[in-house]
């Protein structure tokens, strides 16, 4: 038989699981193509864009454009370069988690 404490624990576990699922399945507010569009809008080559956001090769930029994810530092640099039109939280799960924590 469940005690009231067991019931609360089960309910809390369920809420955490639901929140975790929602965080993992949220659609990205920054479509991947927007990174490429930003680079082209700024008139930058892959190499030039990479240099502006702290990457060393055009291959790294190409991978970010395809995958839509990157390190926290690069995500923040892209957000700044886009004048906050692109959301760093959409590019990096660590930033997304930190921002959700701050907003909570």
Could you explain the architecture of this structure?
By secondary structure, this protein is mostly helical. It has one domain (30-103): 434 Repressor (Amino-terminal Domain). The protein has 7 helices and no strands. The protein has helices spanning 4-25, 33-41, 46-53, 58-67, 72-81, 88-91, 93-103. Helix 3 (46-53) crosses helix 4. The radius of gyration is 18 Å and the shape is elongated.
The level 1 CATH classification is Mainly Alpha
Tell me the name of the CATH homologous superfamily. lambda repressor-like DNA-binding domains
Radius of gyration: 18 Å
| Mean pLDDT value | 81
Portion in helices: over 70%
* Class based on secondary structure composition and strand pairing: mainly alpha
Number of discrete domains: 1
* SSE ordering: HHHHHHH
Spatial shape: elongated
The second-level CATH architecture is Orthogonal Bundle
